[in-house]
User: Which sequence fits this backbone?
């Protein structure tokens, strides 16, 4: 068994009791390493750059489910629309409307998560709590039939303070539960809660994550593609 296969098996076993899905983050990794993971049984990958994701999609098996986990510019949606499985970081009505337009062109519903800004870092993207509730309440969802929101995504502050990370994840989980109790538009569901990465996923699991995004702990330290 290769090191990547062993890492995948370890995560799958750890996540099984939680019912949480592993999203291996393959950014900057060459196709050879992704194929190694694929042959070990993994058919899901996360990428944060559109050009890199499209190149990998074109060069790898077509039964892979591609998750886009980075900040998405509206002018790049058209490149992902034909095939992306889930867009993790939607944070504006304008982006939703662009996804709708491109989904309509390809006659497919595009799955999304709404990103909430939970960190104490200005560099992180996402909706405020108020912005999240306003978007769900006021967006013209009937005009967005090619968009399906499946839940929320958030990134905690990059810190060694585990209590702070826990508070941030718990806050996102509370928002998720609050929305799940409400009557939501037909194309908004609160099924998924994407939170947790290599350095903080165990806290995210404790707080109810349904998807964790893991790169380094599966593929090793990031290295640039040749």
Assistant:
């Amino acid at each position: 068994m290769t090191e990547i296969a062993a890492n995948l098996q370890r995560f799958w076993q750890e996540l099984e009791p939680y019912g949480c899905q592993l999203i291996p983050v393959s950014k900057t990794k060459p196709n050879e390493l992704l194929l190694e993971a694929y042959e070990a049984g993994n058919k899901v990958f996360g990428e944060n750059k559109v050009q890199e994701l499209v190149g990998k999609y074109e060069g790898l098996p077509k039964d892979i489910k591609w998750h886009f986990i980075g900040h998405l510019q509206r002018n790049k949606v058209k490149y992902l629309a034909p095939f992306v499985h889930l867009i993790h970081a939607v944070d504006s009505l304008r982006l939703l409307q662009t996804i709708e337009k491109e989904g309509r062109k390809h006659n497919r519903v595009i799955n999304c998560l709404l990103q909430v800004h939970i960190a104490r870092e200005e560099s992180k993207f996402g909706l405020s709590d108020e912005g999240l509730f306003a978007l769900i309440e006021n967006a013209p969802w009937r005009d967005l039939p090619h968009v399906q929101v499946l839940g929320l995504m958030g990134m905690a502050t990059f810190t060694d303070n585990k209590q702070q990370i826990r508070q941030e994840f718990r806050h996102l989980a509370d928002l998720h539960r609050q929305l799940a109790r409400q009557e939501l538009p037909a194309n908004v569901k609160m099924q998924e809660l994407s939170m947790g990465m290599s350095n903080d996923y165990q806290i995210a699991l404790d707080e109810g994550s349904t998807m964790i995004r893991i790169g380094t702990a599966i593929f090793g330290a990031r290295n640039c593609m040749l």
